[in-house]
Amino acid sequence: MRMRKKKHAEERIAACGELLVTEPQSFSGKWREAFAARLERCVDTAALSLEIGCGKGAFILEMARREPETLFVAIECCREALLLAMEKVKDAGVPNILFLHENAADLDQIFAPEEVDRIYLNFSDPWPKARHAKRRLTAPSFLALYARILKQDGFLRQKTDNVILFESSLENYKALGWRLSDLTRDLHASPENADNIETEYEKNFSAKGFAIQAVTARKP
Ligand SMILES: C[S@@+](CC[C@H](N)C(=O)[O-])C[C@H]1O[C@@H](n2cnc3c(N)ncnc32)[C@H](O)[C@@H]1O
């Protein structure tokens, strides 16, 4: 995400310090127990959900409000977006969200095998040119990372307005044996829209008339 530099960014990030995990590798395999106090019920069975590329954070904030017993981890490589998302969550006072200023390519150093229940990919950068396909967050190299950290019955939920990204993602899921469900090429006109949480990009693109595509993929 390209964003203007924010004024006093470092002071503002420091003010949200309790939400930012700066050495996430040290929590690999221990996320639930380390942050159990942030959950409504401190249970070992709490779900652990990730959003990769959380942008300004509207989606994960509403998810965390709806599921106070789930630990949410928002991963964002753009510091300006991360700052806005953290400030939104801090103002809302929702405790069960943590933030990582990290690249998704490093996920397997941060989460242990089969530690994660769900991964959300919302409006990931589409990288529409074929020569950039490896950068898409549903490229085979990323799917291999997700398959490693997701639980056996875990799943990934993807939403996008971009047809090229969506179709290439579907090809990759199928080629690698992921099982697909709840596939729609017009989410807002589908019954599933009832409990859909719109992201910032989603609001913007649907207002411009783009159909929103979505799919759930379960690892092989
Ligand atoms: C198009 S924006 C969508 C933001 C938000 N999910 C939404 O729907 O409003 C994609 C976001 O993913 C982040 N991103 C892209 N590649 C990433 C990566 N490899 N690791 C972490 N974040 C990434 C970008 O910085 C950007 O904020």
Number of individual domains: 1
Tell me the total number of β-strands. 7
Mean pLDDT: 95
CATH architecture identity:
3-Layer(aba) Sandwich
Q: Strand arrangement, largest sheet?
A: 3-2-1-4-5-7-6
- Binned, the helix content reads 25-40%
Show unreliable segments. Answer: none
Cα distance spanning the termini: 31 Å
Count of helical stretches: 8
Q: Could you give the order of the helices and strands?
A: HHEHEHEHEHEHEHE
CATH superfamily: Vaccinia Virus protein VP39
Radius of gyration: 17 Å
Kindly name the structural category: alpha/beta
Strand content: 15-25%
Q: What oligomeric state do these chains adopt?
A: single chain
**What do we call the CATH topology?**
Rossmann fold
What would the keywords be for this entry?
20% strand, Rossmann fold, 220 residues, 7-stranded mixed beta sheet
Question: What do you see in this structure?
Answer:
- This protein has 220 residues and is an alpha/beta fold.
- It has a single domain, classed as Vaccinia Virus protein VP39 (Rossmann fold).
- 31% of the residues lie in helices and 20% in strands.
- The protein has a 7-stranded mixed beta sheet with strand order 3-2-1-4-5-7-6, sandwiched between helices.
- It is globular.
- Bound molecules: S-adenosylmethionine.
- The site of S-adenosylmethionine (SAM) has 21 residues, from helix 8.
What's a concise summary of this model?
The protein is an alpha/beta fold and 220 residues long. The radius of gyration is 17 Å and the shape is globular.
Topology:
Elements lengths: L8 H7 L15 H4 L13 E5 L5 H9 L4 E5 L3 H14 L4 E4 L6 H4 L5 E7 L17 H10 E11 L2 H13 L3 E6 L15 H8 L5 E6 L2
The structure holds S-adenosylmethionine.
